[in-house]
Amino acid sequence: MEAVILAAGLGTRMGKVTQTKPKGLIKVAGIEIVHRNVKLLSKLGIKKFIFVTNPKYKETYQKFLEKLKDSLGIDYTIVINPYPERGNGYSLYVAKTAVKEKFVLTMSDHLYEEEFLKKAITKDGLIVDRIGAYIDKSEATKVRIRNGKIEDIGKKLNHYDGFDTGFFVLTPEVFKHAEDLVQKKEVVELSEIVKNAKLPAGEVSGYFWMDVDTPEERKLAKHYLIKLSVKGTGDGWISRLINRKISTRISKYLVDYLTPNQITFLTFLFGIFSALVNFYSIPLAGVLYQISSILDGVDGEIARASTRTSKLGGYIDSVLDRYVDFAFLLALACAIRPDFFFWIVISFAIFGSVMVSYSTERYKAAFFEDVYKVVPAMKYLLGKRDERIFLTMLMCLFNQVKALFVILAVLSNLRVILTLILVWRTKRAELTL
Q1: Eight-state DSSP code of residue 240
Q2: Whole-model pTM above 0.85?
Q3: In this predicted model, what pLDDT tens digit does every residue of 64-102 receive, in sequence order?
Q4: For residue 14, what pLDDT band results from cuts at 50, 70 and 90?
Q5: What share of the chain is helix, strand, coil (3-state, %, to 5)?
Q6: What is the pLDDT of residues 250-276, one digit of tens each?
């Protein structure tokens, strides 16, 4: 399957930013719109891309796509629309000489989440969203469907069945309908081709997609992408109720300026700093440790929002987190100067804290799957890192450090034992099926 991306428009509604570059190369949440779509579609197996642009932006797109060609393993063709004022339907028409097989069609200024694209490429025709959860419904293009095909399309439809997502799965047959209209009219819009061809309606509802036409929509799109970047599984209660509400706000401001790896390193340094503060003020150290826990979510949010996730990044982040936890608890223990026998309790607290993470990461290494997805009961177990850090802050504030170590020693090791039991039962059940 091929992909055609229409990028011939001048993007005048976006303001000054499109005076120097096309709208498709504007960054939203740390990555260019076109880059995001090409990257996600290439992950789904589409390797040939056909870009329809105007003469003004040909060289700009050429340089940009050359950079993507090797890194994403794609091939591309640039087709020039010398008359962009003739409408996006005409842009589709001029792509006919480059298209050889079934293809997806989208616009250079449309954003989609990965799950939308996974479902959309399995459909046919115009992809319709019946819900429109992330768009201004009053401004969106509506569609009316009859017998599974598009009967009517337009922004002013009073009775409609869904919204035009700007994403299509088409065959070269559509060019016959485009040619009929091009020969009759000077300006041809895609909506006219859709209606003329009576395209099938493929439904993908409830997922994120947006048409980014204005600076306000660009800002809103970034907000949604950061919001959607929160992990679906694995977060503890404190992350869900407190940390993520703060970290996503931080991510929104940093995503365009810092990389996930830079955030990981800065958070690590902040965590080590919080450990050293124990020798100055234990309550302050506890607060800083909790702040480091909040910041620890930012690198992952930025990575997912900007499609820059990597196994290496996740691995490094996990290792550095263990160093921060070990350093903080060890520094806290040294600061209270415990006797020899209480060091045994401290050892169990530190060891158990490390084993909580090890037990889940080791599961992933052994079975190549996320334990939180396979064993749903895991999300109800107390003692995840965010919960332990929040508890640590509270106990430090109330000068109950010895009680903290006792609780951590019991809580963390009990969680590991329960994890082993749940995994054992799950895997035994799988063997009996």
Answers
A1: I
A2: yes
A3: 999 999 889 999 999 999 999 999 999 999 999 999 999
A4: low
A5: 60, 15, 25
A6: 999 999 999 999 999 999 999 999 999
User: Are 335 and 351 in a shared domain?
Assistant: yes
**Structure-block tokens of residue 80:** 């020039």
For 341-373, b/e burial (b = at least 16 CB within 10 A) is eeeebbebbbebbebbbebbbebeeeeeebbbe
The answer to whether the CB of 54 falls within 8 A of the CB of 80 is yes
Per the structure, the complete domain to which residue 101 belongs is given by 2-225
The DSSP code for 103 is E
* Domain end residue (candidates: 203, 225, 247): 225
What is the domain-level CATH number for residue 370?
1.20.120.1760
Domain stops at, among 201, 225, 249: 225
β-partners of residue 75 are 48
Cα separations (Å) of 422 from 119, 375, 376, 378?
A: 33, 7, 10, 8
Give dist(CA 379, CA 371) in Å, integer: 10
Helix (H) or strand (E) holding 151: strand 149-154
SS3 (DSSP) at 187: coil
Would you state the structure tokens that stand for residue 400, as one six-digit string?
A: 């109950």
CA distance 22 to 237: 43
Which burial class, exposed, middle or buried, applies to 418 when counting CB atoms under 10 A from its CB (0-12, 13-18, 19+)? middle
Burial class of 231 by CB neighbour count within 10 A (0 to 12, 13 to 18, 19+): middle
Query: Phi and psi dihedrals of 152, rounded to 5?
Result: -150, 155
Which residue spans within 36-114 are E strands per DSSP? Answer: 48-53, 75-80, 103-107, 110-112
Q: Do 204 and 283 fall within a single domain? A: no
